[in-house]
Amino acid sequence: MNLIKSLLLIFITLIYNTMNSQTSIYDLSITGIDGKEIKISDFKDKNILFVNVASKCGFTGQYEGLQKLHEKYKSNLVVIGVPSNEFGGQEPGTSQQIASFCSDKYDVSFIMTEKVKVKGSEQHPLYKWLTNKDLNMVSNSTVKWNFQKYLINEKGEFVNYWYSFTKPLSEKITKYL
């Protein structure tokens, strides 16, 4: 009987520790396109839209919609563009080249990060959280192409994700803002 009680206590302790060791989105950070750390915790109480972006993609025009979304909802939404070169080599530039392109062509003023891996064995921890149900507690996903969008609510909870064909100002996204 004591063995059963001991095993039960160990099991309960393991479950408790597992439940309390879940990584919050607010525990994560990513390097900005300017080389400075971006702490996701700085955006508590705001919705956050993460979008993997590329400058030589058929969806690159969505920068315009992302900028409009940023301007329209900036009081309660943070848009974060995350350059990635994993889909057809469509983001080959350096951080400086990417920043210049976004500024010159689309007058982007929302946050941009350094170029990262959004899938595979070198996937950035942010994208591990966004794509893994064990971490975000809602959904598993795979980043399929550039301009896939992930929305986090003002409490740091995963809301949903949308593939490239969903435009930034789509009601699918704005209904949550």
Can you describe this structure?
- Helix content is 33%, strand content 18%.
- The chain has helices at 2-20, 62-73, 95-106, 125-131, 133-136, 171-174; strands at 29-31, 37-39, 47-53, 77-83, 111-112, 149-152, 158-162.
- It has a single domain, classed as Glutaredoxin, CATH 3.40.30.
- The radius of gyration is 18 Å and the shape is globular.
- It starts with a helix and ends with a helix.
- It has a 5-stranded mixed β-sheet, with helices on one face. It has a two-stranded antiparallel ribbon with strand order 1-2.
- It has 6 helices and 7 strands; from the N terminus they run H-E-E-E-H-E-H-E-H-H-E-E-H.
- The chain is α/β, with parallel strands linked by helices and 177 residues long.
Q: How many whole angstroms does the radius of gyration measure?
A: 18 Å
Class inferred from helices and paired strands: alpha/beta
Helix content: 25-40%
CATH topology term: Glutaredoxin
Total strands:
7
Q: How much strand content do the residues show?
A: 15-25%
CATH superfamily: Glutaredoxin
Strand order of the largest sheet: 5-4-3-6-7
The backbone outline, from C-alpha atoms, is globular
Distance between the termini: 54 Å
The tally of helices reads 6
What low-confidence regions span 5 or more consecutive residues with pLDDT below 50?
A: 16-21
- CATH 2nd-level architecture: 3-Layer(aba) Sandwich
CATH class type: Alpha Beta
Average pLDDT, to the nearest integer? 92
What is the count of distinct domains? Answer: 1
